[in-house]
Amino acid sequence: MITKPGEPLDAMVSPRFSQIASFARLPFFKELDSINPLGLFIGVPFDGGVTYYSGARLGPTYIRVESRVLRPYNRALNVYPFRILKAIDYGDIDVIPTNIKKSLDVIEDSINEIGKRGITPFVAGGDHSITLGILRGLSRYKPLLIHFDSHLDYWDKYWGDERYTHGTWVRRAIEEKLVRGVLQIGIRGSLYSIEDLEYPSTSGVPIQIIYMEDIDRNGIDWLVENLNKVSGDVYISLDIDVIDPAFAPGTGTREVGGFTSREIIGIIRSLARSGIELRGFDVVEVSPPLDHSGITSLLAANIIYEAMSVKAYHIMRSIKAS
């Protein structure tokens, strides 16, 4: 059964539970020259940067499985995201499980190859350390980083002198001048010290933190209004633990009091009204061994779908404007 870029397998012909699992049942391609997609799904199965529970290396596989229920038409945004993006499943990056620095290099090289073709990568991790490699690969854009998370992720070192973990990648990205600023959303939970809050004032780039209590006080519409003020090149990284563990238990460093699944879908979808140029998107820290009935992987698949839909919406808007 053969399909072309942007066309998933037809569930009315081939039942959803059949065939090899690709993201949303999209065709699998590793050769980009002949198809020229505008967006693609790619997995980064690496969790060598975790500091607590592991298991996120299995995230891309299980997200693909749960993505079988996704359909080609997004009613809320009135777009066919896969068709507009000529989307494919590009497979996984072959990381080195025991070596984080070499894995970051491999991620950088792979994403650079995708980015220089003008293709937007939609990435499934993997732990959050992989985002540093992705940002290196997209450094030509020096985007604003929109960071959905329950944790700040700009600690300097772990266990003496370990500078590369899923809790240090934001600081490394800033130090390497990969981003023009950082907008952090959903931060909550305990910290090691009050000194953890001092870094934004010395980082050298603008860092804005929107805590969950800010959102509780002002509402989701207030958050959406602030996001819609953002413009220019943007990279979005979403740690699944920004969601409350009642809705996304399959992650390694859970924090209570997060978004509901419905809220996060609405927030991502609302970016269609913004003026951003989305250069890439990831969902990380999905750990299937900690999940229940695949609900975290299912949510991650839907979040990626909505992000693809936002990109497709912006493309259609640009075409109509011209």
Please give a handful of descriptors for the protein shown.
Arginase, Chain A, 30% helix, alpha/beta, 9 helices
Descriptive notes:
The structure is a single chain. The protein is an alpha/beta fold and 322 residues long. It has a single domain (44-52, 93-321), classed as Ureohydrolase domain (Arginase, Chain A), CATH 3.40.800. It has nine helices and eight strands. The protein has helices at 59-66, 81-85, 100-115, 130-137, 169-175, 212-218, 220-227, 261-270, 295-321, and strands spanning 39-44, 88-92, 120-125, 144-148, 181-187, 207-211, 231-239, 275-284. An eight-stranded parallel sheet has the order 2-1-3-8-7-4-5-6, sandwiched between helices. The longest helix has 27 residues, at 295-321. It starts with 38 loop residues before the first strand and ends with a helix. The model has no long low-confidence stretch (mean pLDDT 95).
Short recap of the structure:
The chain is built from nine helices and eight strands. It is an alpha/beta fold.
Compile the SSE list and pairings.
Layout lengths: L38 E6 L14 H8 L14 H5 L2 E5 L7 H16 L4 E6 L4 H8 L6 E5 L20 H7 L5 E7 L19 E5 H7 L1 H8 L3 E9 L21 H10 L4 E10 L10 H27 L1
Helix pairs in contact: 1-9, 3-4, 4-5, 8-9
